[in-house]
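RECORD TYPE: inverse folding
INPUT: structure tokens
STRUCTURE:
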């Protein structure tokens, strides 16, 4: 059993009985994929570092998935974009950020995406060879290796067998979970600690190197003086996000913002930073994702094993990436658009259900708006290209399942003809019109709202991560990623956090120095 105990030295702001005023070399806001690597690298490089995290610590819990979502996800998991369709975009709000509740899949930034960043955004040093040492360093910290077939959930293995039977090949997904036991709870806080989220990898090392980490501390404003960043003002909050009445004022000449793609532009806006920059809060990409479920005679027990373990990239050129997705029974029964007797049948026979998912490299872009009473929200609607890709992916998966013995398959569509019992049903679906509002999807990869670019005419922060016009304020989370990636983003974001820290320490790793 891997150890999964809370590291020593985390300070809980919710327990403060007085206000705090302290001084550091750097303050990092957010403990997720961007913030944690930056904090650890800076602390190990000799800087006095403070880290602020709005959420709390959740180690060794025994919650059901539905209970864990209430405690570890922002707003109990109901964050969403507004548009056609409404798309839930769940976010972690806890020590380790969304990495604590993610599936553990790890990809380097695809070369074609890096080429686009160089060509369209002037990010000249985003060369595969130049950033390879950063990725090497990240992968060594979080133990990236292909998922083992032995601990994959059955739907992943079935897809491997089905596509193999058709002369196609996918591959086990690279994951940051050495020693994974296949308990299937990755998205609800890996209770064994096998998944090397930030909570059990970078953050304990940051603490060992002397970083001070406050949980239940919500940064409300970045402080500026006439030279630029001068610190952060934060409120101590309880588990529900309510202020306890105490504040933390942390002075520092460097503020690294890593609140996540949907929150970093809000903090900048509230702090009066990048006010005139027309890219702030725009260009939101989310990789909308959905799945097809299918019923088999065989007992599948979809909740046993790694939920997301096997991938197929045969349609990647068309912006579609297939990856496993399975859910524990307390969520899986409800996470579908079925109703009435069909829903009852699905839940009763859940042990015979296999599902497999996909994400779309979106061409749509969302943007932040401020709504009366609701505050900052994101508007986002699928484009016709995205809708066409959904249709293709639904049909491809439904056919795969039906050709290999499924009794019926369901596409996640909010309409009656979402059930397929024959290949003719799938043909009919492909011929019928599909509207964005028909699609039931979710999104797990928000990116791009403070994108990095060579000039303020193109983006919010420069190639050195510094926000244009705000010296000492840096962005190193998903919001800095300039475009959709087409693959899971956590490793790209960890690379950016590492890159920023190296730059602030005046170091470069390997060939990047030669650029
Ligand atoms: C269910 C799920 C599964 C996923 N699976 C994968 C996967 O398999 N592979 C992959 O690559 N990606 C996956 N992702 C996405 C990936 O986890 C995120 O892209 C990544 O963690 C984003 O990193 P970040 O640093 O931008 O933000 P986060 O990791 O979300 O971290 C931001 C942190 O900042 C905190 N914060 C926000 N505002 C404040 C404030 N004002 N003050 C203090 N703290 C604040 C938040 O509470 C949060 O903890 C998944 C996401 C989800 C939801
Ligand atoms: S399957 Fe279980 S042990 Fe493996 S990473 Fe996920 S939660 Fe951890």
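DESIGNED SEQUENCE:
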């Amino acid at each position: 059993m891997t150890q999964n105990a809370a590291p020593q030295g985390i300070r809980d702001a919710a327990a403060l009985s007085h206000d705090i005023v302290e001084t550091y070399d750097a303050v990092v806001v957010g403990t997720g994929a961007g913030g944690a690597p930056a904090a650890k690298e800076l602390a190990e490089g000799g800087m006095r570092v403070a880290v602020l995290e709005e959420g709390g610590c959740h180690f060794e819990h025994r919650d059901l998935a539905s209970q864990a979502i209430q405690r570890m996800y922002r707003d109990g998991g109901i964050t969403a974009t507004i548009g056609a369709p409404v798309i839930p975009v769940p976010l972690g709000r806890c020590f380790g950020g969304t990495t604590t509740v993610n599936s553990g899949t790890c990809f380097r930034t695809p070369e074609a995406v890096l080429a686009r960043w160089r060509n369209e955004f002037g990010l000249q040093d985003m060369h595969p060879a130049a950033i390879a040492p950063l990725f090497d360093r990240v992968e060594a910290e979080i133990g990236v290796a292909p998922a083992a077939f032995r601990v994959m959930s059955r739907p992943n293995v079935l897809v491997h067998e089905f596509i193999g039977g058709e002369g196609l090949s996918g591959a086990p997904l690279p994951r940051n979970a050495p020693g994974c036991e296949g308990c299937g709870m990755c998205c609800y806080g890996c209770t064994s600690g096998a998944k090397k989220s930030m909570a059990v990898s970078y953050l304990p090392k940051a603490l060992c190197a002397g970083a001070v980490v406050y949980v239940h501390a919500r940064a409300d404003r970045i402080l500026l003086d006439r030279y630029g960043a001068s610190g952060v003002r934060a409120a101590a909050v309880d588990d529900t996000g309510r202020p306890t009445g105490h504040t933390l004022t942390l002075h520092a000449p460097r503020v690294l913002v890593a609140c996540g793609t949907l929150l970093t532009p809000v903090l900048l806006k509230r702090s009066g930073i990048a006010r005139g920059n027309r890219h702030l809060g725009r260009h939101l990409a989310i990789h909308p994702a959905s799945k097809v479920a299918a019923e088999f005679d065989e007992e599948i027990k979809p909740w046993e094993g790694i939920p997301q373990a096997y991938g197929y990239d045969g349609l990647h050129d068309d912006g579609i990436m297939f990856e496993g997705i399975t859910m524990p029974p307390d969520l899986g029964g409800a996470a579908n658009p079925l109703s009435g007797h069909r829903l009852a049948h699905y839940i009763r026979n859940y042990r015979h259900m296999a599902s497999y998912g996909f994400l779309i490299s979106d061409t749509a872009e969302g943007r932040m708006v401020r709504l009366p009473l609701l505050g900052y929200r994101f508007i986002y609607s699928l484009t016709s290209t995205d809708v066409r890709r959904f249709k293709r992916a639904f049909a491809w998966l439904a056919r795969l399942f039906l050709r290999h013995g499924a009794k019926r398959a369901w596409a996640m569509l909010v309409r009656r003809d979402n059930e397929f019992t024959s290949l003719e049903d799938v043909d009919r679906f492909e011929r019928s019109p599909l509207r964005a509002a028909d699609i039931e999807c979710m999104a797990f990869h928000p990116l791009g709202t403070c994108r990095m670019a060579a000039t303020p005419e193109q983006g919010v922060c420069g190639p050195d991560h510094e926000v244009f016009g705000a010296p000492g304020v840096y962005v190193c989370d998903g919001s800095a990623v300039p475009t959709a990636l087409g693959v899971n983003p956590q490793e790209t974001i960890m690379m950016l956090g590492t890159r920023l820290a190296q730059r602030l320490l005046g170091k470069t790793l390997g060939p990047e120095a030669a650029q």
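NOTES: The chain has twelve helices and 24 strands.
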